Amino acid sequence: MEHFSVSPAIINEFLNNTKASHYFSLTRQFDTQNIFSSGRWDLGRYFDNTAIVSIKDLHIKRAFYAETTLENLITIDIVLEGGVHTLVDHFIIPNNDMPRVLFGSHNESGYQRRIHHEDEHYKAVGIWIKPQVLIDNFGLELDKFPQVTAELLQGKYNRSLLLPITSKIKQCAEEILETRITSKLKEKFIEAKLTELFYYLIECLLSPEQSFNLSNHLSTRKSKAMKKILARLNDDNIEEINLTTLAKEVGMSESHLSKTFKSSYGMNLSQYRLQQRLVKAFELIVEGKLSIFQVAMEVGYRDQSSFARAFKNHFGFSPTKVGSDI
Fold first, then answer.
1. Where are the alpha helices (DSSP H) in the chain?
2. Cβ 106 vs Cβ 72: under 8 Å
3. C-alpha dihedral over 303, 304, 309, 311, to 10 degrees?
4. 77: domain CATH number?
5. pLDDT class for 152, splitting at 50, 70, 90?
6. Is the pTM of this model over 0.90?
7. 3-state DSSP helix/strand/coil percent for the chain, to nearest 5?
8. Which helix (H) or strand (E) holds 181?
9. Does the pLDDT value for residue 324 go beyond 60?
10. Mean of all residue pLDDT scores within the chain
11. Which of 167, 184, 206 is the last residue of a domain?
12. Are 182 and 293 found together in one domain?
């Protein structure tokens, strides 16, 4: 399988060469004859050259993977159509052909690999921005975020979170993707849309159930049901919530609930619940009031070893490493 490597040197040169065009095509860099794909794989720099935006609308002709070294960056991938098998640091996100948002934090040893398979169609908008730039530009008050999210926003760990993709996030990303970069006015339009997009993303990081609103493309009943489900899954009172109970609470069949949740959020109930349990565990470990064993029990694991395996698979390091120089 062909391998394309986007090195930090390419990114830094693009960001620092402010005399050149703000636009850069990775297809021209790696695939000038459209052997591996057709369509767009473009980069643009925004916010006074402090952020890179990637616009991908690709039909894959021949399988390849693209790998990027990420240093001191926040990455946000909004997948609109199709899918791609992604390895972000230690976190594997299989292709499920669903719209989704992947929020990533990368320190000096971060990396990302996307594996594209033949005949896939992939549409996505990606954003790379320095943590401090994101915090300063948007006036983020970190004490209002859950601790693990605040630390990810500061780029302290190599870690990624899956977020619900609301209709407003999806609409902003679609408008960015559909806008061709041909004039100063359109550059300003994209930057304005990026600002709007960051607003919705930050809302989602603060409170996913509140960011999901009735403008989503669901009936009022289903939309209210999904909002209620998210609130239950995000409840600090960690308990074993089964599909049968949730379905009864919102008056839906189990199969219908599973299908609606996945189509709404780009992940299934168990994926989202696992993420929330382990994020809660991270916060409890940081507090330092409980032992690792007690934390495991608190978030619903029956033994410390299975908890430690799940934690390491999710975060890329063991629970005992939390608070140390990972």
1. 8-16, 26-30, 131-137, 147-153, 167-178, 184-206, 208-211, 220-233, 243-250, 254-265, 269-287, 292-298, 304-315
2. yes
3. 110
4. 2.60.120.10
5. confident
6. no
7. 45, 25, 30
8. none
9. no
10. 80
11. 206
12. no
